Structure formats: structure tokens, C-alpha cells
Amino acid sequence: MNTKKYISPGGWFSLKYPDVWNEFEDEEESFLFYNPEKWNGNFRISAYKDRSLSYAEESLREELKNNDQAVLKSIGRWKCAYSCETFMEDGAAYTTHFWITGAGNVSVECSYTAVKGTPVTVAEKIIESLEIRDERKQYPKEYIPVRILEINEINMACEWASTQIKKLLKKDFTSSFADIAHMQQIIDSGKFRPQQRDIWQMFGITFGTILVNEMDGLDWITVIDGKKEYPALRFRDTNLTVRPMTLISSRLLADGTCDLMKEYEKIKEEVEKRL
Q1: In 21-140, which ranges are continuous DSSP H helix?
Q2: How high is the pLDDT of residue 195?
Q3: What mean pLDDT is reported for the chain?
Q4: pTM of the model
Q5: Predicted confidence (pLDDT) per residue in 133-146, tens digit
Q6: The pLDDT value given to residue 29
Q7: Which of 7, 74, 136, 226 could, after both became Cys, cross-link 14 (CB 3.0–4.6 A)?
């Protein structure tokens, strides 16, 4: 099974899930994955941290003690408190499987909901891949598929930039090549100071969206670099990456100017070298 890697916000844990699955919006502090093309179950995971280094073990024991349906089960190197329940929805029977596991001061709760009788192999494979990341360890920089957290950040930035372009230039924002000239007008207008990093970060992310729409193979990713987590662009599985969040602000702070068309052409040239 080909997989993709997920690292939770804050770097508490990582896991691997099927490459035909995606992450989807869920309730706060819960992360949801499933196959959008051919649904075969929802996998959810939540993690909780405590000061006690025995928190995970205590949570597992408490579940086994208080839940009459829970049994101790091993999945790979993980000891889990496992239970399940079946319910009816729209005339069909579904089963939700629950696992509580973890290590040290991080307790993890996983669930897998699928049609009754569906094997739980895919969920167990995900749990088997689970890693509780050591906050004291320095991990190498990693690129993972863009998370919902960063997708929301990208969408928010584009909505803000669209509003500014509409307000200042009376133009509609279409996330296309034509919008580069509109963004350049705002940069050159002096409306915002070079030191206003938050504003230029949002314009930079918006510029990144244009790049993705105009250049095949260039896609959003999430970069995990120590305590830093941010959206960036990567061309396929190559070493060509672009960090649009800082692209505009770094140019403005360096010499007071930023030529977006020049940046666009430079990135396009690098993309074409790798085709």
C-alpha cells in the first residue's frame, strides 16, 4: 500500500495513511482521513498531552477499567484498549471501532467507522505507523501533503487579498495570471509599508495560489521545520520549492521593491528545467 505522511500541528505525532486518502475538515483537535473517490471508512485521530509521563498508560488502563467492552489488543508495537459499537443510519448498519493508545505523556484516541463487516486492516496499518514525536528531538525538515490547517490559511489569505484588490482597484480577483499586475499595483502604490509582514505574507500566499493555478506540477505542501510549520510550494517530487509567504516581504525589506512578474518568470524557468 502506497502511503502519505501526516504530522500533526505542533508535531505531537505522525502517521502514514493510504495515498488515495485525504485529510478533511473535522471538529477541533480531531483529524479525519478517508478516500474521497471510493469511500471505505472514516479514520479519526485525536491526541491529548499531560504533564505526567505515564499519562498514556493511565488513559489505557482507565479505558479498560471503565469500558466493559474494551479489551487489550496489540497493533504492531502499540498496546491498545479496543472496543467497537454498531449503529444504524439510513437503513444501513455501520460499526465504529475505537482504540486508545499512546506513549509517555501523549494519549491517542483513534476510531474507524465503516460499513458493518468491513475489515479494519487499513485502520490498523495506520495505527501501526503511528509515531509519538519527541519534543526534545531535533527532526530534519520534512515536506508533507498540505494539511487542512494550511489550506484554511491559504483560503483566508486569498479572500483577504481579493477584498483588497476589489476595494483599492475595483477589480475582481480570479487567482489567475492577470492578477499579478493587480497585486503589483498595490505593492507599488505604497499603501502598505514594507515592515507590515502579515500583509505581505497574505499577498505572498495569494501569489502562490496563482503559481499553482498557472503551472502544472506545482502544488501546495506543508513544511515541518523544527517548531516552524508553514505552507509552501513544491514541484512534483523534486527539490524545487518556493516559500511564497516570505517572498514579497523579503524583497521589500531588502531593497524596497518586489517585481512579481520577474519572480513569476524565474519560477517558471525553474519548473520548465525539470519537465
Answers
A1: 55-66, 121-128
A2: 94
A3: 96
A4: 0.94
A5: 998 899 999 999 99
A6: 86
A7: 7
From the list 220, 262, 259, the residue with the least C-alpha distance to 241 is: 220
**For residue 48, what is the enclosing H or E element?**
strand 42-49
Contacts for 51-54: CB closer than 8 Å, 24+ residues apart: 51/105, 52/105, 53/104, 53/105, 54/104, 54/105
CA 117 to chain centre: 31
Domains in the chain: ranges and CATH:
3-137 (3.40.1000.10), 145-273 (1.20.120.1090)
pLDDT at 40 over 80: yes
Question: Which among 260, 166, 149, 253 is positioned nearest to 204, based on CA atoms?
Answer: 260
Q: What is the Cα–Cα distance from 23 to 37, expressed in whole angstroms?
A: 13
Residues whose CB falls within 8 Å of the CB of residue 102, separated by 6 or more in sequence, listed in order? 47, 55, 56, 59, 60, 108, 132
Would you call 144 helix, strand, or coil by DSSP?
A: strand
